[in-house]
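Hi Prof. W.,

I finally got the Co2+/Mg2+ efflux protein ApaG prediction working! I wasn't sure whether to trim anything, so I left the full sequence exactly as given:
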Amino acid sequence: MKELFQHTAITDGLTVRVAVNFLPEQSRIEAGKWFWVYHIRIENETGETLQLMTRHWRITDARGHVEVIEGEGVVGEQPVIAHGRSHDYVSGCPLSTPQGSMEGHYTFARADGREFTALIPFFPLAAPATAG
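And this is what came out:
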């Protein structure tokens, strides 16, 4: 089955696509825990090779509580993405509310050492009404 990417951001030739799905089997709604999995595809059409160095996420729940997550790489990797290539990874996000959102940016290093910041598109986290 082909993944449906619902959200896209393009920054100077670098495209970040996101597909997000609610996982009821990983959620504990009776305990106030909801869980989503998201699939990211980063497509490099910048004309140069880039290495993903850091991530910056802004996660907001339905109460307006914001959590900022920053760190090196993604899922333990700092992938090098050549022009014309892409990198995919999957991660997850728990929340204490049935709705929320995520957005952010990645910092990449160019071959000459200069930094490049690419946007991660805003995407909602929404559990089905039957799950909340």
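The mean pLDDT is 94. Does that look reasonable to you?

Thanks,
D.
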